[in-house]
Amino acid sequence: MSTKAPIALAGACGRMGSAVERAVAAAPDLAIAFRADPKLAVAPGCGPDLSSLGVGSVSGIVDFTSGPGAAEAAEQAMRIGCVLVSGSTGIDDRARAALEKAARSVAVCWSPNFSVGIPLLTRALREAARRLPAGWQIEITEIHHGGKRDAPSGTALRLAETWKGERGGRLVHGRQGITGPRGADEIGLHALRVGDVVGEHRVLLGSAGETIEAVHRAQDRTAFASGCIEALRRLLRQGPGWYEWESLLCGD
Question: Kindly report the CA angle at 51 between 238 and 245, in degrees rounded to 5?
Fold first, then answer.
């Protein structure tokens, strides 16, 4: 009988925490050994945070909390000596620094979107940015449920930075008033919040006489949970370092 790898789930009571819980329950090779969430009291197998975990007690941490929560998960991963997969959004400089510090001693993968489709869309956008002639422009629109705390989404920012990394430009968040003609270097970003939309990202590329449009829709949080679990599996085979979800998925 194979032994299931024990993992800790930070943000266990949230929407994504619940989705990860269901995904792990169906996995033959993983088991949740500890659940952490501010809503949970200290008890065997759970608590408000990860501080009660013993060194070597879990093989990995899955984190879906917040910027400060991701920083705390990174510190605990270093202390425990386990891999870390974080899908927390709203990452600030402190959280990013903590994740990068952890990656010097354990394997870390942070992504604003663990669906399978977004890494492929990102790769296609990077290739388009390299190959399209000068003069092509980009607009990015994202739609999420009304309860989302950050805007634009981390995924929209990642897509924008992918284009910017290849062609330069400046991020423009929405437009209002008499803005004048669109600047050639603009990277338009637009955030919509409505209902219970799980997530939609739309990339529109355009030049004189033609446009290219690509859309990714997540119909259920299962898409993110399944990708996160797959990232964890692949991370468990890696040594210390920073790993992009795109690279883990595509085998780079």
Answer: 30
